[in-house]
Amino acid sequence: MTVEIYEPAASVALACFAHPDDAEVLCGGTLARLAAQGARVVLVVATRGDKGLARVDDAEERRTGELLEAAAILAIADVVQLRYGDGDLSNDLELRRRLVTVLRSFAPQLVLGPDPTTVFYGGRLYNHRDHRELGWALLDAALPAASQPGYFPEAGEPIGPLEVLLAGSEEPNSAVDVSAYLERKVEAVRQYRSRLGAADGVLADAVVGRAVDAARSVGIPGAAELFRRVEGAG
């Protein structure tokens, strides 16, 4: 699949991911770029992140604090937490209703989320269930539900067609240059101290290395984030 350089533009952009830190790792540079361009950037986090730590008694409180710190660094205007438990996400009617409500409330032109078709990474790794379930629910909410009045009429007025950038894809077709925002992305990722701990420097190096490799793979200097860019067809 050919990967093209993509110039993101929107007055409102909405990113929706399963866990605290997903958005920062997968598309933090793009979110920072959109905010710097004047977009109102909204981040929706579906779970509490309550099972992702060795110590779980205060996991939700700690990860919420880190989420808000990271959002401030990326200049994210609004953070919406759906507060599902880790592992509890399913592409069901209730989750789609809640996503449609959020989409209609903010009326973005651009939506970012996880690619649900990514089940396996390379030869040995496989993707978290929450990422897959949230990715399918987000696509189903974006089209047809959010744009057609017969779906969830209680959720607000329908919105127009949405462009969607799917992060973490094994089949990317679009690259966003985030060279000017890479340091900000790394700083946002560093806020997740409860998960990084002593590995902070290692993860920061990995974030930089992945972005540099992504840019190199499409023949541009600096740093990039890769996406599968899609639009609804129904």
From TrEMBL:
GO terms for biological process: glycoside metabolic process. It comes from Acidimicrobium ferrooxidans (strain DSM 10331 / JCM 15462 / NBRC 103882 / ICP). GO terms for molecular function: hydrolase activity, acting on carbon-nitrogen (but not peptide) bonds, in linear amides. Pfam families: PIG-L. The lineage of its organism: Bacteria, Bacillati, Actinomycetota, Acidimicrobiia, Acidimicrobiales. This is LmbE family protein. It comes from the Bacteria. InterPro entries: GlcNAc_PI_deacetylase-related (IPR003737), LmbE-like_dom_sf (IPR024078). Signal peptide: none annotated. PANTHER family: LMBE FAMILY PROTEIN, N-ACETYLGLUCOSAMINYL-PHOSPHATIDYLINOSITOL DE-N-ACETYLASE-RELATED.
